[in-house]
Design a protein that fits this description.
With 583 residues, the protein is mostly helical. The protein is built from 27 helices and 3 strands. A 3-stranded mixed β-sheet has the order 2-1-3. Helix 15 runs parallel beside helix 17. It is elongated and about 140 Å long. Pfam families: BTB, NPH3.
Length: 583
């Protein structure tokens, strides 16, 4: 019912408009022209005089008196046909840059050429296109925009190509010699185009040899207009809307983003890194193709030395900033930059492990600060934390203070880690590369494993004894690291031995308290075990303690180390019997 009312209203409006300019109400109309849902009551002789297409329809009709003509496929629809009909009736109307392309296509469709009739609609629209519409950059862009609904006839008439040629030519001039402010005003006007025509414009600009920065400026403006919710909106209001990955909106965003990435200039440094990070975050969010994400990751990796912590955080968190989003891209970006630096070092015949470039040092500081920002996230696993930290070469960090800060924050945010897990977290840093202030803090930090605390304390004591300046201790730190590890191992064995001795003392005390009966049972057990009965001997408590004592070598690495004594001249066939007693 509603559709019929709507159709009747359109019909009445179309007839009312037609009645205002028709040549004479005294001459009844003899043909009804249907264009979509609109109908026009007109006169055949007026239309045939200007349109060869309508003349053919009348002549080729099998009906003796043709009363209805269907022109629903005319370019531009009812509004354009109405203006073409006015032209046939000699009624004045305005040709503008908004409607000239549609009128030109309609004139071609209706065959209203100068060959059929002098000074026809085709010639009038061509003159307007050449002299007015395509004489300025803004006019060319508007005409090109109107051609989006006129394909393929606008393409066949070369209107699209003419608009692209004029727009690129005048944009190149405008970019070099701005005529008004802001200087990038033309990129705003260019953003009205759909992605297909925008892509043709960018391709034509590249063929003209336009600078990459000019092309990049147009692409940034376009992306910020059409992907505003993803690229510019950091509040999460646009991205958190209830749209599934397969919704029409997400599909359009995905296709648009992939098309924009394919248009990026070949020069990697032409685009700002924060814009690339926003694009990559958007690509991850809309689930763009792997090729699209890889291209963005490579571009960011090339200029990673200019990245900030905030740029990396843009990649890592969701739009609301509440949870981690994507660390895999960050890992690939850092890994790609490190591989590039390695290749440069090899090419220059240098040792990448010992000497790192200034760019690598800057990236190392940024990565350490980035780890400190993501460390409080409860869903950040040890493997992911260590994986990113270990990507940076050890030589790129002159001191590990920033990394120690990140480790400390991680341990504080994850209090339920056991000793082994805490050691894994701390394995990414070198306690001997901490500054004096950081070592003092580490020596009092109860969250750190014992091994790290001992490293810091041992190194401080070594420096105090040697009296070496802070700047000259790096080489000593490397040479003493193995000694510190051995001392830590010895400390653990001492602790284990102390525990065993305490257990043994308690055991003997219980035997003394239990009286003669316990002693007799102990003697009987010893006698039975001394006889050559069947079965292997079971290890006693005393034998286990003896083994513990045997493993401990208090003179290891000392002046009485016997590990290097030669076996020659030593009789080991009949060792002397020794009596071990414990008091």
């Amino acid at each position: 019912m509603a559709s019929s009312v709507k159709g009747n209203s359109r019909l009445s409006i179309a007839m009312e408009r037609t009645g205002q300019w028709i040549i004479s109400q005294e001459i009844p109309s003899d043909v009804m022209v249907e264009v979509g849902e609109a109908n026009f009551s007109l006169h055949k002789f007026m239309l045939v005089a200007k349109s060869n297409h309508i003349r053919k329809l009348v002549l080729e009709s099998t009906e003796p008196d043709l009363t209805r003509i269907n022109l629903s496929d005319i370019p531009g629809g009812p509004e354009t046909f109405e203006k073409a009909a006015k032209f046939c009736y000699g009624v004045n109307f305005e040709i503008t840059i908004q409607n000239v392309a549609a009128l030109r296509c309609a004139a071609e469709y209706l065959e209203m050429t100068d060959k059929y009739c002098d000074n026809n609609l085709t010639g009038r629209t061509e003159d307007f296109l050449t002299q007015v519409a395509l004489s300025s950059l803004s006019g060319a862009i508007v005409v090109l925009k109107s051609c989006e609904e006129l394909l393929p006839i606008a393409e066949d008439l070369k209107i699209v190509q003419r608009c692209v040629d004029v727009a690129t030519s005048k944009a190149s001039i405008e970019a070099s010699f701005p005529s008004r402010t802001p200087t990038n005003w033309w990129t705003e006007e260019l953003a009205i185009l759909d992605i297909e025509f925008f892509g043709r414009f960018i391709a034509a600009m590249k063929l003209r040899g336009a600078k990459s920065l000019i092309v990049a400026s147009a692409i940034i403006t376009y992306a910020e207009k059409w992907l505003r919710d993803l690229v510019r909106d950091h509040s999460g209001t646009g991205a958190n809307a209830a749209f599934s990955d397969d919704s029409d909106l997400r599909i359009r965003q995905r296709e648009l983003l992939e098309a924009i990435v394919s248009l990026l200039p070949s020069e990697k440094a032409a685009l700002p890194i924060n814009f690339l990070c926003c694009l990559l975050r958007s690509a991850t969010f809309v689930k763009a193709s792997s090729a699209c994400k890889t291209e963005l990751e490579k571009r960011i990796s090339v200029i990673l030395e200019h990245v900030t912590v905030d740029d990396l955080l843009v990649l890592s968190f969701t739009y609301d900033g509440e949870r981690l989003f994507d660390l895999e891209s960050v890992r690939k970006i850092i890994s790609g930059f490190v591989e590039k630096e390695k290749s440069v070092a090899v090419f220059n015949a240098g040792d990448f492990r010992e000497v790192c470039s200034a760019a690598m040092v800057r990236v190392a500081k940024t990565v350490d600060a980035y780890l400190g920002e993501i460390a409080p996230c409860v869903d950040l696993s040890i493997s992911k934390f260590n994986g990113i930290a270990n990507l940076v070469p050890k030589g790129a960090r002159k001191v590990d203070d920033d990394l120690y800060r990140a480790v400390d924050i991680y341990l504080k945010a994850h209090p339920n880690l056991d000793e082994i897990e805490r050691e894994k977290v701390c394995s990414v840093m070198d306690a001997l590369k901490l500054s004096y202030e950081a070592r003092v803090h580490a020596s009092q930090n109860k969250r750190l494993p014992v091994q790290i605390v001992l490293h810091a304390l041992y190194y401080d004591q070594l420096k105090l004894r040697s009296g070496v300046d802070e700047n000259d201790t790096m080489q000593d730190a490397v040479t003493t690291r193995s000694q510190v590890q051995q001392d830590v191992s010895l400390a653990r064995e001492n602790e284990s031995l102390r525990t065993e001795l305490l257990r043994m003392k308690m055991y003997i005390t219980d035997l003394q308290k239990s009286g003669p009966a316990a002693k007799g049972s102990l003697g009987a057990a010893t006698t039975s075990s001394g006889k050559g009965g069947g079965g292997p001997r079971k290890g006693t408590f005393f034998s286990s303690v003896s083994k513990k004592l045997g493993k401990l070598n208090p003179f290891k690495q000392g002046s009485k180390d016997t590990s290097n004594i030669m076996d020659e001249g030593v009789d080991i066939t009949k060792p002397r019997r020794r009596r071990f007693s414990i008091s």
